[in-house]
Design goal:
3 domains; binds carboxymethyl coenzyme *A; 18 helices; 3-stranded antiparallel β-sheet; Cytochrome p450-Terp, domain 2; Citrate Synthase, domain 1; mainly alpha
Amino acid sequence: MSEKHATLTIEDKSYTLPIVEGTEGDKALDIRTLRKTTGYITLDSGYMNTGSCSSEITFLDGELGILNYRGYGIEELAENCSFVEVAYLLLIGELPNREQLNDFRGLMSRFALIHEDLIHFFDHFPPKAKPMSILSTMVNTLSNFYPEMREDSDEELLIIAARLLSKIRTLAAFSYKKSEGHPLIYPRYDLSYCGNFLNMMFDKPVKPYVVHPEVVATLNKLLILHADHEQNCSTSTVRLVGSAGVNLYTSISAGISALWGPLHGGANQAVIEMLEAIHRDNNDFEKYIKKAKDPNDKFRLSGFGHRVYKTFDPRATIIKQACAQTLKALNVDDPLLEIAMQLEEIARSDDYFISRNLYPNVDFYSGIIYRAMGIPTNMFTVMFAMGRLPGWISHWTEMMQDTKDRKIGRPRQVYLGPKKRDFVPIHERK
Ligand code: CMC
């Protein structure tokens, strides 16, 4: 807490509010006692301006386009690290040394299988079941299979995290295989986190899959870029659900459900569907730009805009570059890339988008890379969920370990319904 204070005046009476300053200079008014001292609450629909907690995990500056995990710039992490390394960083707060990383990888291998009884659950989803709904259900179900959970020490936390990180990858790949009606491919101890996932997705007894190093490198990068994003909708959901004392798996299952929405992680699927629609419409950009600008039309340019970023999304900059490189390396010529680039150019020179600070976000180009890797469109948001998992676990743990400020999440409201009135018996109602 800083020594600075702000003064709030309500009807001639002044109140002092403490100012809280973050390590990177972000400032907040501490209003925790406001209602008690003044009788007022603050109204902030969509939490546009509300800090729900203090956190040591991720720093984001939307004006400058900065994103740091535990103090390290996203650009350096994406360039130099593996996803497992970054997951360790988010969870523990420090980059692992070689031995720590090997141990963490060892835990991942140890936990890669899922209980065989879990596999039967897949059989009871209808053939067209949505992968995000399956994933959320299965992660919640894990709490019945692996109930022992204590996150008191770093060692225990790493075990819990490795188990979930490893199993979500197996669940995601199995759900795809089941949807295809193909035999399941089990995890292999000799493959990396990303290599294992790709192999479980694409290996077939009749046609062995060769893990392509370029694809592994790109997948690592994508997962790192999605690994945390401070108090976004799904992470806030994980924290809110967890704040009631709910176990990790169930809290994360709720986060997966929040991520599914097209305004959040579901945007990566919506982008591809939008680009495909433009392609089918003979690249009629004008039609889609017009729709996006029309206040009476619900259509929005998916993959554009962000609640926090107001100049550029640093993740999108890296992904755009990786997109072109990956397509080239895999010798994929996808017309959707050209459409995406043209759409970006048109939108970025249009006053509607400029004046509202609407730029491509993380989801705009990621889907084109997933397509090139052979990942089906309805699995894109599952990829986002796999990437975001270390962030969700880190936030859930940070909250659970906070004995000082931890409170059940319970916002207030301003009631605008009818005033108290007399009950009318049914025979007197008109
Ligand atoms: N296309 C057209 N207009 C837009 C868009 C868009 N993609 N995004 C915002 N606007 C307009 C909006 O209509 C509003 O206009 P006006 O001021 O005339 O009413 C203005 O811009 C402000 O929008 P908002 O809805 O108040 O902004 P928000 O901060 O509440 O919403 C957002 C942020 C990401 C939900 C929104 O930009 C959006 O719906 N984008 C498309 C979906 C998308 O790509 N989501 C992924 C976000 S990044 C991944 C993640 O971390 O979740």
